[in-house]
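Predict structure. Chain length: 144.
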Amino acid sequence: MKKINEVSGIVGVSKRTLQYYDDEGILPIERAPNNHRVYDQQTLEQIWQILIYKEMDFELKEIKDLIKLPPEQKEIYFIRQKKKIENKIIRMKVQLKFISLAQCDKFPIRPEEYLEKTYRLYIEELKEKIKEEIMERAKENEKE
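Prediction complete.
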């Protein structure tokens, strides 16, 4: 059995983080007779899992669920998380394209007032067009 100071040093997170995991029910910890938290090997394994799930960008409430699930049910979370990250990558690529346009002095032209579109709507349409181009290029790359 290890005390919180020792575990904090082993896993590389603060004592407060370990206490928070306990308080939130993510990592229920046994208590010694003096009411201090004590950690065993199984608890260290759970902390390892928590840190891995955090690297996958899961939220703590999702991690709390994941720890309790059998492997086949975890797969649903993994698929959903991969899709979430893929969508984030696409959004970031669109932003990169906007930056590239500005760098090359090809800043998108402001819409004319007679188009009866707000600037925001026009920007959203531009982003959608760029997204479609990115998706099309990705499909072409998959074929190669």
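Summary: The chain has two domains: 2-68, 71-143.
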